[in-house]
Amino acid sequence: MEVRKEFKLMFTSAKYALMREMLNKVTFFSNIIFMILNNASFIIQWIILYSIKDNVGGYSFKMVMLLWALASFSFGISHFFFKRAYNLSNIIMNGSLDNYLVQPKNVLLSAISSDVDVSAIGDIIYGLIVYFVCGFSIDTFILFLIFGITSSLIITSIAVIVGSLSFWFTKSEGFADRMNNMITNFATYPEGIFRGVIKIILYTIIPLGVVSYIPIQVLTNFNLINFLIVIGSCILFIIFAFIIFNRGLKRYSSTNLMIARI
Questions:
Q1: Where are the domains positioned within the chain?
Q2: pTM over 0.85
Q3: Cα–Cα distance between 114 and 213 in angstroms, integer?
Q4: Which helix (H) or strand (E) holds 183?
Q5: pLDDT band of 2, cuts 50, 70, 90
């Protein structure tokens, strides 16, 4: 019941944040459309590349498009529902957590879900469009939705973990931004183009293995073990994010900053 209550509050917060953004409909819809067009522009480079060779890093053109679909869909979910996870360092350093400490709900969920990124809707729509263009079946679509959710939760958890470092280290927001940007940049490239140490990093420090690569393998050739690895990794990252944040919260010092949330 407690978990259901927290999720209900989270969705309610997202709903009202979305309603605020929709007050200016021109800006609202233009942000979505331009994000879709921005993502679509990257297809051109892959079309040109695949006109020269049949595969890149062991990935066919369809697999690369699935990679883009999953990355766009999951990043869209994460940035729409948990926008402030990517600004957690600044929230901590500026003392803005005070607003959430006095609320009768989970501090972390309240902080990271208190605003939405409208352009992320464009990412979600684009991901779905590319998926359907790649080919549709009920089984793979269910898997796609599951992996979209797990990937979004993993990258959100990573954003929380690196953002929570600000409880211990000053000016750590630069590191958090670079880590989040690296995940975004690497997530849309076939794993086969990476070798040696870089590939090890992408499966450990930057866990794109469970964010993108293993899910794509399962989507193209279902494997129960790989499926369970992704689900288990998602659960572990969520637990670790809550542990790190809650431990850091004990070190938090209020700045007595009084800001009204409307």
A1: 2-249
A2: yes
A3: 31
A4: helix 173-186
A5: low
